Amino acid sequence: MKTILVVDDNPDVINSVKIGLEDSTQEYRILGAENGVKCLELLQDNIMPDIILLDIMMPHMTGWEVFDRIKKDSSLSNIPIIFLTARTDRTAKNAGSFLGDDYIEKPFDIIDLKKRIEIVFRNKKSNPIPK
């Protein structure tokens, strides 16, 4: 079973992913963090997700800041990150697509989300990053 950490200040998004992925397929365990600070706390507590779904617009710390901190930490930098956000401007799309493993706009289709998560997992498996 793979662990997915959903970082979003909207609990409905976390619940939607949980119901759509965890409850329906039982392939994933979904953990939620309501902001970037909580995400980093979970990671420091050795919660090691297989992938992170990261919102960009959050209070206390933006998704960009969370992304930067994760990628600067050598023990966390190999975790794939998919930006899952309501930001649809060209700058965010370009940056998110370049930096992250994928960029998905809200509202999202749960079937499409699952497919794109699986693509990221396949790409990681076929191109492992040396430790």
Helix-strand makeup class:
alpha/beta
Biggest β-sheet strands, sense, barrel: 5 strands, parallel
Q: What is the fold named in CATH at topology level?
A: Rossmann fold
CATH class membership: Alpha Beta
SS strand fraction? 15-25%
**Number of helical runs?**
5
List unreliable stretches of 5+ residues. none
Distance between the termini: 22 Å
At the fourth level of CATH, the homologous superfamily is Response regulator
Strand order of the largest sheet: 2-1-3-4-5
- Helix % is 40-55%
CATH architecture annotation name: 3-Layer(aba) Sandwich
Question: What are the SSEs and their pairings?
Answer:
Layout: E1 2-7, H1 11-25, E2 28-33, H2 36-44, E3 51-54, H3 63-72, E4 81-85, H4 90-99, E5 102-105, H5 110-126
Parallel strand pairs: 1-2, 1-3, 3-4, 4-5
Q: Could you explain the architecture of this structure?
A:
It is a single chain. This protein has one domain: Response regulator (Rossmann fold), CATH 3.40.50.2300. It has 5 helices and 5 strands. It has helices at 11-25, 36-44, 63-72, 90-99, 110-126; strands at 2-7, 28-33, 51-54, 81-85, 102-105. The chain has a 5-stranded parallel sheet with strand order 2-1-3-4-5, with helices on both faces. Helix 2 runs parallel beside helix 3.
